[in-house]
UniProtKB/TrEMBL annotation:
Residues 5-185 form the Gamma tubulin complex component C-terminal domain. It comes from Rotaria sordida. It comes from the Eukaryota. This is Gamma-tubulin complex component. The keyword Cytoplasm applies.
Length: 196
């Protein structure tokens, strides 16, 4: 196994799993916030913002899990089954990891930083909303700032990914952008989820 999994491969797996774990954590935090707010809160701002964040996170996770990981894994298995050369299989494995990182935007620094910022904003929003719920004191200015920060990052990411798609660099990117821009909502709102 040591001959197959280089230090570079291990680091790539660490980076990929790190993204997947954080993505799942954020998804759970948003779901837990919904459980807290669903029956007792009338503030549509906080629910609207949570729903927008959840929409993005759920679609991004689906894209990573199905359009990237599952697709690339099936491709790798087919390639391995048709090969008998160990060095070629090792090479195919490296290509697999590289493709996953590329299609997850980990190799596109500006897009990946924007994704990390979005994840951070979502976690901070959840923590703040839970704290304000416990204190029974919702500060709309703070919530609106989270909305503006979230929209700014979504707008930036949507623009970057739109430019990448125009160059047909990533085949499944168009499907992800179509899911995000359902009914051209983001396009009609200048790349954002609307006013918060």
């Amino acid at each position: 196994m040591k001959a197959f999994f280089s230090e570079n491969s291990k680091q790539r797996y660490n980076d990929i799993f790190h993204l997947l774990i954080i993505l799942r954590y954020v998804q759970n935090e948003l779901n837990n916030l919904w459980l807290i707010l669903k029956n007792q809160h009338k503030n549509s701002l906080i629910l609207h913002l949570r729903n927008a964040m959840s929409f993005f996170i759920n679609n991004f996770q689906y894209y990573i899990q199905i359009d990237v990981l599952e697709y690339k894994y099936q491709q790798l298995i087919r390639s391995i089954l048709s090969s008998t050369d160990f060095q070629k299989i090792k090479y195919l494995h490296e290509v697999f990891l590289s493709d996953i990182q590329q299609h997850s935007f980990m190799l596109l620094a500006t897009a990946y930083q924007s994704i990390r910022n979005i994840l951070s904003i979502c976690v901070s929003f959840c923590l703040t909303a839970k704290q304000q719920e416990n204190n029974n004191n919702f500060d709309e200015n703070i919530l609106r700032q989270f909305g503006r920060d979230f929209n700014d990052e979504i707008r930036l990411l949507f623009g970057i990914l739109g430019m990448v798609q125009k160059h047909n660099a990533l085949p499944h990117l168009g499907v992800f952008l179509t899911r995000l821009d359902f009914n051209r909502f983001l396009t009609n709102n200048n790349g954002s989820f609307g006013e918060f």
